[in-house]
From TrEMBL:
It is found in: Cell membrane; Membrane. It is a multi-pass membrane protein. The chain crosses the membrane at residues 41-59, 94-113, 145-164, 215-233, 253-275. One of its GO terms (molecular function) is proton-transporting ATP synthase activity, rotational mechanism. Belongs to the ATPase A chain family. Gene3D superfamilies: ATP synthase, F0 complex, subunit A. Key component of the proton channel; it plays a direct role in the translocation of protons across the membrane. Its main location: membrane. It comes from Pandoraea aquatica. NCBIfam families: ATP_synt_6_or_A, PRK05815.1-1. This is ATP synthase subunit a. InterPro entries: ATP_syn_F0_a_bact/chloroplast, ATP_synth_F0_asu, ATP_synth_F0_asu_AS, F0_ATP_A_sf.
Amino acid sequence: MSVEAGHAPNPSEYISHHLQNLASSTQTSIVDFSIINWDTMFWSIAMGVLGCFILWMAARKATSGVPGRFQAAVEMLVEMVEDQSKSIVHGNRAFIAPLALTVFVWVALMNSLDLLPVDLPSKVIGWVGLDSIITHHRIVPTADLNGTLGIAVGVLILMLYYSFKIKGAGGFMHELFTAPFGNHFLLWIPNLLLNIIEFCAKTVSLGMRLFGNMYAGELVFLLIALLGGIWSFGADASVLGFVGHVIAGTAWAIFHILIVLLQAFIMMMLTLVYIGQAHDHH
């Protein structure tokens, strides 16, 4: 998909085009909840379904005998999540541990989409003849702030839910007005403000951390892809561009695998930590 018909995009146009979502309408304000990024929605749901299918296949093929490689890998992942949830959450983990496992697998799959060639989605869309309908497409949901903040808001809802469930409505409200400075009527307003700021900061930082890392990774892949643009400046430049493109792209892709898994692990751990804090009394 070119920026304009018959016009080869310059580097700035190329990057801007690849960083624009397929939205339901044009956004004119900083916050507009009426706009839907269809590509983020599609790939988020697709990776969620794929993650559920992978875990379902592992459970379906589980055996008490010698496990295969796939079952052994899933069992190691489940044991890791269970150990982390046991050490962080002091309470019933019947829902929380599977939730943490789902978060890790889901975010890891969404992050892994960044390892696909940056121009592959547009090529596929062009091959099937939908380039006039799908004018923009971003394949990485976690490189869209709307996607990561959506996950963070979900964690916030769980934090509030467990705060009410474990401490009761009265206990939670008492904590909001008395922690961290103590139960004194002159400190009720500062305590409440600090607790509200804490909930907001946890939510924003959780979403911004994942978004920032994945957005930066996506941008680096685009910059590496632009190295191919110097191929047209002669044979020497062509060889230089090809070598630089392949070497830089391969090196960054290998390093980015660590970022993909690390960010999924951090998202899972912070989810456990925040829900675990909702179980603790101040």
